[in-house]
Amino acid sequence: MIRFEGVDKSFADLSVLQAVSFNIGNGETAALLGPSGSGKTTILRLIVGAIAPDQGGVDVPATSAGYVFQEPRLLPWRTARQNIALPLRARGWHKKRSLTEADKWLVRLGLQGFENYYPSQLSGGMMQRVSIGRALAISPEVLLMDEPFSGLNMELRETLLTLVCDVIADGKLTTLYVTHYLPEAIRIAERVLMLNSNGELRELSRADQADAINAFVQSVSHGLMDADAVNFRRDKKSTTQLSDTEQKPAAERVLERMKL
Q: Is 216 part of a structural domain of the chain?
């Protein structure tokens, strides 16, 4: 479980979070949505204990957490399998056992044949898959993902999102998924939490989510691109066919219009 109770956080004179309270139950998946600079990454840092709240409480009784960053953050002098095996070795696993486990994840991530490639020899999507494997190899109780697919094309994003959804379901992981993108949030999560630009948080109801999606599609069709280029269905197995440069302004515009 992840529990925040009345959390405030400031950096110097900048207030980032104000009276933030929420719970994520064991095995539950929540998405955290909000504009740039609203405090989404700050919440993740509070969860892992990298920083402390100025006021209020953060309770995360889990003993292990996997963290997937926006960028892969792989060690350049280690191969793909060695990067995935690293946290296992840090936990005292024997070298052979840790590499065998890493190889299992490489297969699941579609990277068989690239086990001994170094990060400089891999594409951006491949490196991000390695970073996902590194986070999941330890069988974490809590999975934190900080806009992990923001730099990937839509086809690869959908492939990896499907993979992550399957892994979360199989492992019954308590998950907090940070994203800018409305369709992605609804695609992966049972609940959607929204931070506004003042650092205030609320949970979106199903009606709120539907309104947000409608506003998102309307925003796209009324200024960002031709509506015929949008292929979004509100079932949880589909996503918009927008590039990153098109999705982010659309999402930001919707958040502003909705004053969330």
A: yes
151 within domain boundaries: no
- Output the CA torsion sign for 201, 260, 205, 171: negative
Is residue 57 domain-shared with residue 181, that is, in the same domain?
yes
Q: pTM score, two decimals?
A: 0.78
Residue 187, C-beta contacts closer than 8 angstroms, at least 6 positions apart: 161, 165, 236, 238, 239
- Residue 18, amino acid: Q
Mapped onto helix, strand or coil, the DSSP state of residue 235 is: coil
Q: Is residue 154 part of a domain?
A: no
**Do both 132 and 252 map to the same domain?**
no
Tell me how far the alpha carbon of residue 183 is from its chain's centroid.
Answer: 13
Per-residue pLDDT of the chain (260 residues; tens, 9 = 90+): 899 999 999 998 899 999 999 999 988 999 998 888 888 999 999 999 999 999 999 999 877 889 998 889 999 999 999 999 999 999 999 999 999 999 999 998 889 999 999 999 998 889 999 999 999 999 888 999 998 887 777 788 888 888 888 888 887 889 999 988 888 888 888 899 988 888 888 888 777 766 766 666 666 555 544 433 444 433 444 444 445 454 555 555 544 444 44
* Residue 92, domain member (yes or no): yes
Cβ-Cβ contacts under 8 Å for 183 (sequence gap 6 or more):
213, 216, 232, 239, 240
If one counts the domains in the chain, the total is: 2
